[in-house]
């Protein structure tokens, strides 16, 4: 590993520490090096708080003049919740700036790099760009596609069933697997299930213990037929619940859910796929960065058919349910040919007690969709 890669790797490692706390901002880490030694480092810790570059500059234990600053994303050059990082870098008399990737956010989008170059700094872009883009894939998806990063999660048996033929599913996975799911819930902006899953399982969809975020719990329910006597609706005043309905909803059903504390959102569209796309656009408009989808099979199948699933977390229990009518995790139309089916990029595989936990980002035909247009410059 070359020197630049070594220090950028550390910056990316630091950036990951902000996951769940900084969204909808990107995850950013920064390392400042002088004479081959790290003299300061930092990361964006909290939305609205100091950016990584400022944290690293404040942490420096010696004079930074002439030092090299490694940062995982292009420094901002506009005033938002905090002042421009480019100004802080220029004031510090940094000599060289190494950036993993350009920020596609319109207010930055290369202007930060240009400002640093105009200030006389040596600027290099593209060091470990792929790793940085993979880390910030949810942010990049939100900025470039206007929708959240979609994370599909399911637990299934060894023979690919998510419930028995009677619909019984509690519990397929073990406590270790469920603890991982709770950690996922605690870092996302929203959790989506279908109405059938909400009625069959009567879930709360809350993280236990709580994480850095409280997710909006969303039920895809075209007719807004979710009963008010379920745990989701009964807890709507303590944690947000959104019912994603069709364009035409019975006024009495809407009123009953709204009086219980739910938001009822009309998602126009002639079919389930179109309504889901409408929902994703609205969540993007609300700056939601990560959406966790917990089923059921028809909902997950529709999202896979739309090619909008970006990441999967699957828990396989060493159990065999059997039964021709027992449901599987992904329904929908499905793929026609094996070469066109989604796969996982560098899948992570772990054994949790006896469950097998498989996770990774989704790709099709060898391309990671979310990062394929995020090249450095």
Describe this structure in words.
The chain starts with a helix and ends in a 14-residue tail after the last strand. It contains 12 helices and 14 strands. It is of the alpha/beta class and 377 residues long. The strands form 2 sheets. A 9-stranded mixed beta sheet has the order 10-9-8-7-11-6-12-14-13, sandwiched between helices. It has a 5-stranded mixed beta sheet with strand order 2-1-3-4-5, sandwiched between helices. Helix 9 links the parallel strand 8 (216-220) and strand 9 (241-245). The longest helix is centred in the C-terminal third of the chain and has 14 residues, at 272-285. It is 28% helix and 22% strand. Mean pLDDT is 92; it is low at 370-377.
Work out the helicity level.
25-40%
The end-to-end distance, rounded to whole angstroms, is 22 Å
- Secondary structure tally: strands: 14
What's the Cα radius of gyration?
A: 23 Å
Major β-sheet strand ordering: 10-9-8-7-11-6-12-14-13
Q: How many alpha or pi helices?
A: 12
Output the structural class: alpha/beta
């Amino acid at each position: 590993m070359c020197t630049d890669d070594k220090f950028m790797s550390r910056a990316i490692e630091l950036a990951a520490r902000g996951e769940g706390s900084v969204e909808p901002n990107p995850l950013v880490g920064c390392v400042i090096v002088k004479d081959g030694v790290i003299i300061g480092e930092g990361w964006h810790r909290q939305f609205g708080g100091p950016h990584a570059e400022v944290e690293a500059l404040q942490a420096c234990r010696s004079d930074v003049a002439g030092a090299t600053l490694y940062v995982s994303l292009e420094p901002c050059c506009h005033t938002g919740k905090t002042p421009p990082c480019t100004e802080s870098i220029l004031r510090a008399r940094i000599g060289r700036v190494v950036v993993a990737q350009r920020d596609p956010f319109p207010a930055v989008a290369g202007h930060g790099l240009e400002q640093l170059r105009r200030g006389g700094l040596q600027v290099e872009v593209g060091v470990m760009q792929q790793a940085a883009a993979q880390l910030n894939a949810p942010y990049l998806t939100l900025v470039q596609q206007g929708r959240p990063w979609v994370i599909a999660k399911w637990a299934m048996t060894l023979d690919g069933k998510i419930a028995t033929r009677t619909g019984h599913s509690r519990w397929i996975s073990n406590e270790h697997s469920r603890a991982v799911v709770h950690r996922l819930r605690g870092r996302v902006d929203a959790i989506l299930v279908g109405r059938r899953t909400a009625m069959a399982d009567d879930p709360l969809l809350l993280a236990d213990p709580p994480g850095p975020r409280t997710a909006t719990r969303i039920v895809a329910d075209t007719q807004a037929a979710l009963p008010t006597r379920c745990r989701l609706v009964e807890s709507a005043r303590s944690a947000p619940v959104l019912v994603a309905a069709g364009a035409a909803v019975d006024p009495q059903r809407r009123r009953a859910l709204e009086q219980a504390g739910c938001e009822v959102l009309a998602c126009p569209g002639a079919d389930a796929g179109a309504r889901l796309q409408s929902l994703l656009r609205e969540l993007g408009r609300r700056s939601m960065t990560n959406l966790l989808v917990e089923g059921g099979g028809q909902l997950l199948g529709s999202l896979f058919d739309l090619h909008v699933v970006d990441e999967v977390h699957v828990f396989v229990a060493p159990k065999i349910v059997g039964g021709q009518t027992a449901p599987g995790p992904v329904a929908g139309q499905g793929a026609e040919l094996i070469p066109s089916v989604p796969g996982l990029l560098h899948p992570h595989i772990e054994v949790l007690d006896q469950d097998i936990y498989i996770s990774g980002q989704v790709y099709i035909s060898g391309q990671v969709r979310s990062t394929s247009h995020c090249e450095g410059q």
